Amino acid sequence: MDEFVPVAELTETERAVRAAFGAGERCNLATRSDRKVRAAVLSGLLAGAYPVGGGLGPALRLDHAMITGRLDLEGRTVDPVVSLRWCTFDQTPRLTMARLVGLSLRGCHVPGLRARNLRVASDLVLEPGFTSTGTVDLTDGTVEGTLRLSGAVLRRPGGEALLAARLRVSGSITAVALRAEGEVRLRGANVGGSIYLSGAELRHPDGHALESAGLVVAGNLMCDARGGRFHAAGRVVLSGARIGGDAVLSGARLDSPVPTARCWSCRTARWTTRSCSTPRGCGWTVT
Questions:
Q1: What is the C-alpha separation between 178 and 189, in angstroms, rounded?
Q2: pLDDT by residue (tens digit) across 267-285?
């Protein structure tokens, strides 16, 4: 974990964040010339490392910050609410095994999110405008509210955009108009409400666009055209899934690749019918 920054070394901007945190107020850095806040300062605030003034209760409510370094809350229990809006991170936040009252990253830009075994006692908000250029890993996590992904953009082309195997959500997963480049994995997840993927676009043309084997949903699975057409470019896997309500795919567009040939030179199945398109580029022609 990062070491906390001594109080005497806090910048003017970081002192403003500290004051707002103690009062439970929102701190908007949009008009400041210096919007940089070290992640170690935020970790220190949430860990109670800095004395703060009295208020209704401390809370980290921060807008338009440029967060430098790694926000590391691994294994910590965090009592204050964390609500960050339109902030940018230069390193992947680490929330593995953390326990939070509430977490909102609305409109934030991150290079990924490491949050295996994360537990959130209310909603986990990653909408709208939340953008990740790496894997968002919520494997084995627990959300005791709703997982909100509507309007989020998850980019990991050729890899895993969202890992949420065995995720437990007491409420619903709302992912209307979600944009994902890379696999969305909900294998073995358990959702107490419904899953809303209307208008979502999931792209992983060489593999699973939506991998939901063993998924359990108490309510409905909505992959229809309300709010825009649901589009999956890649395989949609629902083997062994249990949907308590309806599974609705009316108006959906499903583009699933079908391996039609195998290259006898490099033994790799591809989704071309005439020639090998592996990165090795062996040049073997399939007839």
A1: 18
A2: 555 444 333 444 444 544 4
